[in-house]
Amino acid sequence: MENNKMILWIRGAKQKDPHCQLALINGFKPLIKAMIRRYVYDSHAFEDYLSEGTIVLLNAIDTFDEKLGVPFSGYLKKELFYYFVNVAKNHQNLYSLDATADEDTTALQNSLPDTTDIEGDFLHGADLQALFVYLPKLRERQRWIIDEHYFKNRSFREIANSIGVSSNSLVKLHRRAISDLRTYLGIELVN
Prior knowledge:
By secondary structure, this protein is an all-alpha fold. The chain has helices at about 5-15, 20-40, 45-65, 70-90, 110, 120-135, 140-150, 155-165, 165-185.
């Protein structure tokens, strides 16, 4: 492109003149395509990257300052370089779970270990239901210490400091509450 004509197009594009914007887009499309081929390895999304490169061009027009004496083509090339290098960095080492692993024909999704424990989750839910049935049967202070320690996630020392008692007395209260719950639930005491 001719330098004077390009400066006029850039000034017009800064004023959002669609003819100037289109002239610059068409003039720099080969540069955008070259940068995509050089830095982006996903050939299936070429048209998407071409659109993104056009957006980078339009943003570069808005941020370009001709007073600095830098040619617009050099400025745009650096903007495209940094944009597409970041795209390549963000897309490296991304695999689809539907893809197959090396020589194996099994999809990656099927080779991942399944950590779901349906029976354990069910039993845990049943235990929680039983706990909420028997929790009201505890004495008020026992319910309070269970609530403070387990549901509000506070340490015995923190609870003791807030109410002005020794943490040992709270540990004993907690131990009695757990013992009573185990009795209600029919769990044999180990300790």
